[in-house]
Design a protein that fits this description.
Blueprint (H helix, E strand, L loop, with lengths): L6 E4 L10 H8 L3 E5 L3 E10 L7 H12 L5 E7 L2 H5 L25 H17 L4 E7 L6 E4 L4 H8 L4 E4 L17 E8 L3 H16 L11 E7 L2 E5 L5 E3 L9 E3 L10 E2 L4 E5 L3 H4 E4 L7 H4 E4 L2 E4 L3 E4 L5 H6 L3 E5 L4 E4 L1
Parallel strand pairs: 1-2, 3-4, 3-5, 5-8, 6-7, 7-9, 11-12
Antiparallel strand pairs: 2-4, 6-8, 9-20, 10-15, 10-19, 12-14, 13-18, 14-17, 16-17, 18-19
Helix pairs in contact: 2-6
Bound molecules: zinc ion.
Zinc ion binds next to loops.
């Protein structure tokens, strides 16, 4: 089957689903939409996962459910998209196939290349089936607790994220991610379940997914309200593609940037002003850009460059700190948001 056509599978029998997630991916063979009819087929919801081939928690949750065979209350569309990247050896280690675009940066024109064509078909299928909402399940590439990301802030988006986690990032950065198609009448949220090798992340995906399947009204804030930790307007630390990044516990003289291994432990913890973050080589500053939503470099507002070190210039929350040099250079090393220290309750 060509790798740029989404195949549609209707109501697979549990006994037809291979025993392991890996064998299941080989059965699918390419980007797929699995549609399971609900007890009430007049309504449907959508889920997507494995947009990044190295982020398997959502796939494992869907696989477990298909093997179990429980019929959902309402029809469920499951998009499983970067199947080839996931299957590229070693299994679940490639975010995208080498040389290809990141699929979760392709949900806006031009829809070029294989990922662009898959993104365009996904959007057409969503238009065709008109689900009530969509959750897009990911993992972080470094260690992290679970969190949600939305481009729209309202109770429906918060209620969807709260099926999985109480941490919520509201971003105004636009990259061509699937969640950016969200509208008030079609909420789309990203769920980051946690690290891609962390069994806790698999559990977050399974439990949230079951809430999503079984809930009658998943877009309504439950009685008693929601208690969410909100982070607004994150910025991204982007590196020039030729940046030499090393992960080590002491500065590497051959590297532009040396990231200490413990940096990922700061994910969602508060980093006080003055905290040491990274070692910088002589040419490093010119290769770094801390991008806000308008594309402006705001590095000096958040970080301080002193000697060979980069320090937090104010109290910050860091998240999506990667431990993968390829992702650090092709996407970003980390996100940061000012620490505001408040959470809100919606009734
Ligand atoms: Zn992802």
């Amino acid at each position: 089957m060509p790798d740029d056509r989404i195949q549609i599978v209707h109501n697979p029998a549990p006994s037809d689903i291979a025993r392991t997630p890996e064998e299941f991916l080989r059965q699918l063979g390419g980007p797929s939409l699995i549609i399971v009819q609900g007890r009430d087929p007049s309504r449907c919801r959508a889920l997507s996962t494995l947009l990044h081939g190295n982020e398997p928690s959502g796939l494992k949750a869907v696989h477990g459910w298909l093997r179990n065979g429980e019929q959902p209350n309402i029809t469920l569309l499951c998009f499983i998209l970067s199947v080839s990247a996931a299957l590229e050896a070693p299994l679940f280690s490639w975010r995208q196939l080498p040389g290809e675009r990141d699929l979760n940066r392709c949900f806006r024109p031009p829809f070029e290349g294989t990922p662009g064509r898959i993104a365009e078909q996904t959007l057409a299928l969503l238009d065709q089936y008109r689900p009530e909402c969509l959750i897009d399940i990911h993992n972080t590439s470094g260690m992290s607790p679970a969190f949600g990301v939305v481009t729209h802030e309202d109770p429906a988006h918060e209620a969807l994220v709260a099926l999985f986690t109480h941490r919520l990032i509201v971003t105004d950065i636009r990259l061509g991610a699937l969640m950016e198609i969200s509208r008030s009448d079609f909420p789309v949220v990203t769920i980051e379940c946690g690290g891609n090798k962390d069994p806790v992340a698999d559990k977050v995906a399974v439990e949230g997914f079951w809430h999503f399947l079984r809930g009658d009204q998943v877009l309504e804030v439950p009685a008693g309200g929601l208690h969410m930790d909100l982070y607004h307007h994150p910025v991204r630390l982007e590196l020039a593609p030729d940046t030499r990044v090393t992960f080590a516990d002491e500065p590497d003289p051959a590297a532009d940037i040396t990231v200490p291994w413990h940096l990922e432990r700061y994910n969602f913890g508060v980093v006080e002003g003055g905290t040491f973050l990274l070692w910088l080589g002589p040419g490093a500053r010119a290769k770094m850009r801390l991008r806000d939503a308008s594309g402006v470099d705001v590095l000096t507002r958040f970080f301080e460059h002193q000697g060979h070190g980069l320090y937090a210039a104010q109290a910050l929350k860091l998240f999506m700190v990667t431990d993968n040099p390829l992702i650090a250079c092709s996407d970003c090393l980390l996100y940061a948001a000012p620490e505001t220290g408040h959470s809100i309750i919606d009734g």
